[in-house]
Amino acid sequence: MAVWRELRRSGAIPLGQAVWAVPDLPAVQPLLERLTGFVEAANGTLLLLAAKGYAAGDVVRLEQLYAAARQEEWSEFDADCRKYLGELDKEERLGKYTLAELEEEEQSLDRLRRWYRELRSRDLLGIPATTDSSTALKLCEEQFETYADHVYAALTSPSD
Question: Which of 66, 57, 85 lies closest to 22, judged by CA?
Fold first, then answer.
């Protein structure tokens, strides 16, 4: 189970029953070493292969599969960013300027930041969606700062 989780977390793509693929890049070497350690600790067997496509199109197809998996993850991330921005807009419309709400929104932003780092760490091919998602996260951070300013202003202004 640890091997499966590590493969999923790393962004490896499943090709079939117990067959996974990762790009042939130096950044993948630590992953392969961790997997080997997990399997050896469990007295299991692991077969690592450096594969090349039979035809020129095979390499392209594998890169497309990997990029599609990353694109799907980035799309989900972007949808969560839009949801987060909608939540901040709602709190602004309601004038809900409390420390409890601010803390909740900060926790949500921290979750987005962690998720972004995770996705970025496995996007070894650097697909274009990475840049779009970086922009989306920055917008979330800016909106949060604006909301935080409004909360602090509401809390420090004298009540009537």
Answer: 66
